[in-house]
Design goal:
This protein has 239 residues and is α+β, with helices and mostly antiparallel strands. It has eight helices and eleven strands. The protein folds into two domains: 5-94, no CATH class; 96-231, 3-Layer(aba) Sandwich (Aminopeptidase), CATH 3.40.630. It has helices spanning 5-15, 50-62, 76-84, 100-103, 121-129, 134-142, 187-201, 216-224; strands spanning 20-24, 27-31, 43-44, 68-71, 88-99, 113-116, 147-154, 157-167, 170-178, 206-212, 228-237. An eight-stranded mixed sheet has the order 4-11-5-10-9-8-7-6, with helices on both faces. Residues 109-239 form the N-acetyltransferase domain.
Length: 239
């Protein structure tokens, strides 16, 4: 059975984990340590009161983090409260999933893609060019389940890198980065095929990925590869 959006929320957390969490009533505070919105955003288990919001904001500021919430399916009341309090919508994303077996009927050309952990220095350099620095690599290192780096070559040159990890039989790809001068050459597709082959070798049944709604190219790629749109989420941030 295809994973639902709540399952993918849990997979996202496990495969791209915060440094630490703290529960304040219905609110979970995440300490990201510079690892980006996904590991720094608070979530709420139920609608919260203005007083609970004030406490959550204080806790985030104590971590030197801007107040930030991730809004998931069913969070309409919280979304409305945050909007009224001046929080702006940031980075709405889509969550996609596909059976691994759908992708493993095809294979990348020989010596074009690899699954490797620890990350090679060239992988770190490609990530750095795309704005994925040490703090986000530290997120990858925190993952406790099966994980791998993804490395791709185009015309015998280093071209792309990514990260994948598995939770509850679902592999999720993160931090996929293709160098600018190797884009529009099919590297994104080949990297996802490599991720599927690795996931299959680890016994995972599904491959998932998160993509910002504004990235038309990547959204189109995942749809063309047979990924199903399962749900979404967005952030609200208070400057």
């Amino acid at each position: 059975m295809k994973p639902d959006v709540q399952t993918l929320y849990a997979v996202t957390e496990a495969t791209w984990p915060p440094a630490r969490t703290e529960v304040l009533g219905p609110v979970t505070i995440r300490e990201g340590r510079g690892g980006g919105k996904r590991v720094s955003a608070a979530t709420a288990a139920r609608p919260i009161t203005p007083e609970e919001l004030t406490k959550a904001e204080a806790a985030m500021r104590a971590l030197d983090q801007t107040p930030l919430f991730q809004l998931r399916e069913g969070d309409g009341a919280l979304d409305a409260l945050l909007a009224a309090e001046g929080y702006e919508v940031v980075d709405p994303v889509n969550l996609y999933v596909v059976p691994v077996a759908t992708l493993t009927v095809d294979r990348p050309p020989r010596v074009s893609t690899f699954a490797v952990w620890e990350p090679l220095e060239i992988m770190r350099e490609i990530w750095a060019e795309g704005g994925i620095g040490a703090a986000r690599i530290a997120v990858m290192e925190r993952v406790t389940g099966p994980k791998t780096g993804l490395f791709g070559r185009h015309k015998d040159q280093p071209a792309a890198t990514g990260f994948a990890a598995i939770h509850d039989g679902i592999a999720m790809v993160h931090a996929l980065e293709v160098q600018a001068h190797h884009r529009r050459a099919g590297m994104g597709r080949l990297m996802m095929l490599q991720a599927a082959l690795w996931a299959q070798s680890e016994g995972a049944e599904f491959l998932a990925v998160i993509c910002t709604k504004g990235n038309q190219g990547a959204n189109g790629l995942y749809s063309a590869m047979g990924f199903s749109h399962v749900g979404d989420y967005h952030y609200r941030q208070k400057e």
